[in-house]
Amino acid sequence: MSPILSVRDLEKTYDGGFQALKSVSLDIRQGEVFALLGPNGAGKTTLISTICGLVTPTSGSIFVGGHDALKDYRAARQMIGLVPQEMPTAPFEMVGDTVAFSRGLFGLPPNRELVDSILKDLTLYEKRDNPIMALSGGMKRRLLVAKALAHEPQILFLDEPTAGVDVELRHDMWRIVGELKKKGVTIILTTHYIEEAEEMADRVGVINKGEIVLVEDKAELMRKLGRKLLTLNLAEPLSEVPAILSQYDLCLEDEGSSLVYTYDSQADRTGITSLLTDLSKAGVRFQDLQTDQSSLEDIFVDLVRQG
Asked: Which stretches make up the ABC transporter domain (predicted)?
């Protein structure tokens, strides 16, 4: 199946000479949730803005549903909904009216039934006759989503969708994304909250210094790059790792009171059994042990450091 969104060799250099995007190539599958991660200034917003037609690329190509986004802008943009971090809205405009107006901007006929359905899905229906200024911050964030969905896009961009909102709204936004995915909407989100990517994404892309560092299925990324740690709480502190244990990936922590073993949980042999045997031979006793799996955040931090 052809990707619903395809970016090839995309570059953006601003007038001052700063290169925000460096030969970015990316394919997005239809119906997936794709999380784009990266530190501040990595190029996330520039990439989204370029795809959505808000920024003109220096070179490269963008195809949306087979449409050349640079030559056939209207057809490509029709397929895209964008939920920015912030959007200036008329404070006295009514909630229902502003969503309906967003639909009209794309030349589509009025459809009050659809608008009402969107408002209900986002728990905004009871506020439809209220002015925007009367909404809470969380409700305004939902309104941005409603406006982006008014023209029935097949691709939805969420730029930091839960930045600055409380935990309850964040989880509610996760639910909304899940429901949109069930309806077949392709979702690309940028986020600083790694747990969002861990919770929602099918695939993860990491961008750093304007370059795509990695694109991988989330589960496969966790399997390939996630570390498994065995921590042994020692009966007596050690000043150094005994020579007999040099074959293992061990390090001392907590002033020598903990011994940490890093291993691949997917390998045929983890080496734990032989490690415990050699610990006994070396006279190293431990009181307790525990295992931990590195999170997506750990992987992200490592990748950015390498970059």
From this structure: 5-234
Pairing of strands 203-208, 33-37: parallel
For the chain, what are the domain ranges? 5-223, 226-306
Q: Quote the CA–CA distance of 235 and 65 in Å, as a whole number.
A: 62
| In contact, 292 and 229? CB cutoff 8 Å | yes
Nearest to 206 by CA among 37, 42, 41: 37
Residues with Cβ within 8 Å of 306's Cβ and at least 6 positions away in sequence, in order, are 213
Q: Each residue of 265-295: b (16+ CB within 10 Å) or e?
A: eeeeeebeeebeebbeeeebeeeeeeeeebe
Q: Report the alpha-carbon distance of residue 286 to residue 204 in Å, rounded.
A: 39
Tokens (6 digits) for 180? 């949109």
pLDDT digits (tens, 9 = 90+) for 210-239: 999 889 888 777 666 656 778 889 988 988
Q: For residue 94, give Cα distances in angstroms to 81, 83, 90, 149, 219.
A: 21, 19, 9, 17, 43
- Main-chain phi, psi angles of 254, to 5 degrees: 55, 50
Nearest to 49 by CA among 105, 10, 2: 10
Token pair in block for residue 211: 């370059």
The pair of structure tokens assigned to 8 is 């090839």
Return the CATH number of 5-223, one of 2.60.120.650, 3.30.559.30, 3.40.50.300, 3.90.870.10: 3.40.50.300
Taking residue 16's Cβ as centre, other Cβ atoms within 10 Å add up to 5
The string of pLDDT tens digits covering residues 192-218 is 677 777 788 899 898 888 999 889 888
Task: Report pLDDT digits (tens) over 270-300.
Answer: 778 888 888 888 889 888 888 776 556 666 6
Residue 238 to residues 232, 246, 248, 284, Cα–Cα distance (Å): 12, 14, 16, 9
